Automatic annotation (TrEMBL):
<feature type="transmembrane region" description="Helical">
    <location>
        <begin position="99"/>
        <end position="124"/>
    </location>
</feature>
<feature type="transmembrane region" description="Helical">
    <location>
        <begin position="6"/>
        <end position="22"/>
    </location>
</feature>
<feature type="transmembrane region" description="Helical">
    <location>
        <begin position="43"/>
        <end position="63"/>
    </location>
</feature>
<protein>
    <submittedName>
        <fullName>Uncharacterized protein</fullName>
    </submittedName>
</protein>
<keyword id="KW-1133">Transmembrane helix</keyword>
<keyword id="KW-0812">Transmembrane</keyword>
<keyword id="KW-0472">Membrane</keyword>
<feature type="transmembrane region" description="Helical">
    <location>
        <begin position="69"/>
        <end position="87"/>
    </location>
</feature>
Length: 129
């Protein structure tokens, strides 16, 4: 009954991987890879680890639709962490973020909302049984 969420998680995984390499500011050299390698930012390294975990959870939810709330919960946690890390990024201050960066932040927070809705849907289904 909740297999429809799996159809959304696959494209989200692809877009999330692509968004990792896009610049979030008008300065073209600032993207997540540049912050981690050139600027030697440890927070960018943690964000990369969280992003890899998020993509892994999204792929797992695509290939095997969730029957318990754990996978949507992990998707919500990791995407929420990505969104908060992007909001707290020193290069993502108001006025410095371009439209791509704003879209990536909305994507992360939208994925969080989708995963929470999926978890609530699974809880409601379990309670009806």
């Amino acid at each position: 009954m909740t297999e429809g969420y799996a159809r959304l998680y696959g494209p989200l995984a692809v877009v999330t991987v692509l968004a990792y390499f896009l610049p979030i500011t008008d300065r073209r050299e600032i993207d997540s890879v540049a912050e981690m390698t050139v600027n030697d930012d440890p927070i960018a390294a943690v964000a990369t680890f969280v992003l890899v975990a998020l993509v892994g959870c999204l792929v797992a939810a695509t290939l095997r639709p969730a029957t318990t709330i754990w996978l949507p919960a992990w998707i919500a946690i990791t995407s929420g962490m990505c969104g908060v890390m992007l909001l707290q990024n020193k290069n993502a201050l108001p006025g410095k973020v371009n439209s791509i960066g704003a879209g990536i932040i909305v994507l992360a927070l939208g994925t969080t909302v989708l995963a929470v809705a999926h978890a609530v849907h699974l809880i409601v289904i379990r309670e009806r049984r």
